[in-house]
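Hi team, as promised in this morning's meeting, here are the two structures we talked about. I've kept the exact order from the run log so nobody has to guess. The first one is mostly here for context; it's the second one we should focus on when we meet again. Sequence first, then the predicted C-alpha cells.
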Amino acid sequence: MKVVIGTRGSRLALTQTKWVIDELEKHYPELACEMKIIKTKGDLIQDKPIDKIGDKGIFTKEIEAELLKGNIDMAVHSMKDMPSELPLGLRFTRTLKREDARDVLILKEGYASIEDLPIGATIATGSKRRKYQLLAYRSDLNIVPIRGNVDTRLCKLEEEKLDGIVLAAAGLHRLGLADKITCYLPMEIMLPAPAQGALAIEIRQEDTKAYDLVKVLEDPVSSIQVEAERAFMDAINGGCHMPIGAYCEVIGTKLRMRGLLGDELGKKLVIKELCAPIGSEKQLGEELASVLRKEFEKNDW
C-alpha cells in the first residue's frame, strides 16, 4: 500500500514528516510512504512579519489544497500553525506523542539565563505572544522581529547584533539541536502557543483508511492536552494576529490549564488558570477562554 504525505520543505518540516513515516512503516512493514514537498505562502514571503501577511493559514493552505484534490493522502503540520477552523472536507487524526511544549532562549556566550541579560539587551522573536510575555517579565529588553527557519535564525544570532533569540524547544529537540539551548523558559514566564510541540496529521474527512493507519500512533495524554488547548483557541478565535497562549497539564485524573490573552499592542496581558476532571477537555478550554475574555474586556486597565 502506498501513502503520499505532504509537507513543507524546511529541515524541521522534513524531519517531522520523516519521523511520522518511520513510525508508520515500523507498524506497517508493507506500507510504502512517499514524501511530497509543497511550498506555502509563509515559506515564500520572508520579508514581512507573520502578522502582516494577512492569512491565518499561511503555512497550511497550499498543502490543504493538494489534500482536497487527492494529490496527497495526508499532511504533516506543526499543530500550533493550524488555524482554529479546518477547510470543509478535512479533519485531524488523533494526536501523536507531543514534544516539550516550552519556549527556550538561545543566548550569546556569557549569558546563562534571562536574568543574566544586561539592561536593554536585544532579543529576537517573530511572535507577539513571546514578545509581550518577555516584556512583562523584563520591560527593559529590546525585542526585535525575526523570520526564517530554525537554521536561519541561529545564523542571525551569530551574524547580527542580537543577544539572544526565542525558539520552541520542540523544533530544536527534533533537529538534534538541544545543545544550542541556553535555558528553558518556565511556564510562569512564558506560556506556549496552544498545542505547541504537537504534530498534526490532516486527512480527508471520508478517508477512514488513513485515520485507522495513524490510530496506532495516538498518545492519549497528548490528545487530551491538544483538545483542551485548541478548544481554548477556537473559543478565543485566535491566530497569528492575537497574542494567546495555553497549556493544559494532566495530573492524575484532573486537568490544570493556564491561558493567556493579550491585545495587539501588548498593553493588556491577562493570565488565568482553571481546573477540571479528565473528560471535560473541550469545556475546560471554552470556559477558560470565556473567563479571560471577561477579564480582558474590563475597563480598569
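And here is the second protein, the one for discussion:
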Amino acid sequence: MQLSHQASRFKSKAFPIIVIADGIQSPANIGGLFRICEAFGVARIIFWNSAPDFSSTRLKRTARDTINKVPYSICEDVISEIEILKNKKYKIFALEITADSIAIEDIQREKDQNTVLIIGNERHGISQPLLNTSDQEIHIRMYGNNSSMNVIQATAIALHSLTKV
C-alpha cells in the first residue's frame, strides 16, 4: 500500500542548487517544476523570459502546495544574476544537447557544490545568450532515436544525478 506524505520515511535535505527556467511557458510544466524542485531540495527557482500565471488552475493542480515551499523569483536581467552567482562560486550547468555538451554522469563537480541548472523552453531550448553563460553544457544520455524529452522529465533526471549523496 502506498504511504501517505506524513508516513513516508524520506529525510528532508536542502541542496545548494538553483534552477533557472528559461522561457518555460506551460502551466503544467511550471507546476511540475515546483513539484520536482521541492522533491529534490532545490534552494530556489529563477524564471526568466516568461511570466508564469500563478492563478492558473492547471499550474496549481500540478504543483500541489509546492509553490509555497520552494522560493522563486522572476528575473529581468538573468545575465547579471548569473554573474553574481559565479562570483559566489556557483558552477553553471546548461541542460542542453549541443556539440560541446557532455553526459551529466561525466561532469566534474564537488559534493554539495553551489550549482545552477539552466533548463530551456519546451520548444526552443535554452536561449543562446543564456547558454553562453554556462560553465558546462550537459545532456542526459539517451538510447532511442528521439533527441529530446519533456523539460520537467529531463529536469527530474538531472536533479536526481546532481543530488546523489
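Starting points for discussion:
The first helix runs from residue 27 to 39.
The domain at 15-162 is CATH 3.40.1280.10 (Alpha/beta knot).
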